[in-house]
Amino acid sequence: MVLELAHFSAALLFATFASIVFGITQRDNVRDMVKYGLYCFSLFVGGVIVAGWAMWLLRR
Amino acid sequence: MAPSGKDLEATLERQNRAAAAPRTQAAPANPAMAVLAPAIGWLIPGAGHLVQKRWWRGLLLMVSIVSMFVLGLLMEGKVYGFNTGDLLDMLGFVGDLGAGGLYIVTRALPDVGQGAIHRAVADYGTKFIIVSGLLNIIAAVDAHHIALGKKS
Fold it and tell me: A11, A40, A15, A17: which is closest to A27 by C-alpha?
């Protein structure tokens, strides 16, 4: 079985799993873990969107 | 206006009290567990937390790291063996090795983790596998800190 993912779907999965691990390991209590996980996720996805638009602009 | 001596003293006392107070309630140190937990956590992702009864954290770490590794394999990512070639290949091996038991099992399986250089998504798979190994090392270090009592 071979998995065919779009670039964005792969980036979303990557961001989700990495953010969960970062949140759990980098903070002490549950509330801070959730907040930090969401913060990391937004940075990952935001970074992907910014990089995507930057590449679009460079290509023009 | 400059602060008076009394104000400064009171401020310093407040800062000292805040620094001395523990931020969270951490468990007492357990030296045996401090060695065992990261070793088990490296071998089985999330198990370092599970043996210390951090059930939800252990389970979430296990699901995240195993899913990332398996998705990498399903995308036909490459699993690096020991090598002394290109620097990036050597670093790839170090990252992959972090996945512990997952890496050992995958290396034992034939035709898995060979990589498919003609597909872009396979390169993503390779990165998924490396990063899952690196995340597993972070999780094992976290289990070590919990056993030492540095973290609750």
Answer: A40
